[in-house]
Amino acid sequence: MRSRDMERGRKHRGDTQWTAWLTPTIVVANVSIFIVVMYTNDCPKTTTGANGDCVAKLLRRFSFQPLRENPFLGPSSSTLEKLGALDWKKVVQGNEKWRLITAMWLHAGIIHLVMNMFDVIIFGIRLEQQFGFIRIGLIYLISGFGGSILSALFLQKSISVGASGALLGLMGAMLSELLTNWTIYKSKVLCHVLSQDTNINRKYNMVSLP
Q: Which of 15, 59, 146, 198 is the most exposed place for a label (fewest CB within 10 A)?
């Protein structure tokens, strides 16, 4: 029974392990875009910056907006809106459909960015190694686009940014793979537990003779 499960798993997933390069590229792209956003924001030149309210002033042009304005340590909402944040009015009434794509590459702040990219690395690399960059790339883009559509439908009074939709797509793919091959993973865990138990018994039940 166990051998059939393992064989089915090999047929389903294949023996090839892909090299994960797309996921790190996505992370680098998101970080690079955030740097560009902060450069464009230029907090010291804004009204709040003129009052000396910027956070991390040593970063100068890259310093963050005041925490009361953006608790995520990031740019102003006006900067995000200018660079492609999702705004329902501009998408529907202004016919700026491109915002459905650009919003998924923007982040509200460094905290938002780090949390999302950490999860993308955790789920993305594993999935890309198993299924290849084409499938994972399509899942990421389609899920991100779908998340933007849902945000436009339900968050009509505020702007939205982030890769949460794409991240949920990766998490869904991981859950689907886990449920599909549950018997295989269960067999592997059982084999590992039995082997450890055998090693422990050998270690503690061995009697030395004089």
A: 15
Number of domain units in the chain: 1
| Residue ranges of E strands in the chain | none
What residues contact residue 196 under an 8 Å CB cut-off, 6+ apart? none
Residue 207 resides in a domain:
no
Residue 52 falls in which region: left (phi positive, over 0), alpha (psi -120 to 50) or beta: left
Q: How close are the terminal C-alpha atoms of the chain, in Å?
A: 45
**Per-residue pLDDT reduced to its tens digit, 105-160:** 999 999 999 999 999 999 999 899 988 999 999 999 999 999 999 988 888 888 89
Q: What is the pTM of this model?
A: 0.77
Residue 204 in any domain: the answer is no
The DSSP line for 126-166 is: HHHHHH-HHHHHHHHHHHHHHHHHHHHHH--SS-B--SHHH
CA dist 110 and 70 (Å) reads 11
Query: DSSP character for 14?
Result: -
Q: Which structural domain range is residue 106 located in?
A: 2-13+21-199
Residue 106 lies in a domain: yes
Instruction: Give the CATH number of the domain where residue 110 resides.
Output: 1.20.1540
Q: Is residue 150 part of a domain?
A: yes
Q: Which CA distances in Å does 195 have to 5, 52, 183, 198?
A: 19, 63, 18, 5
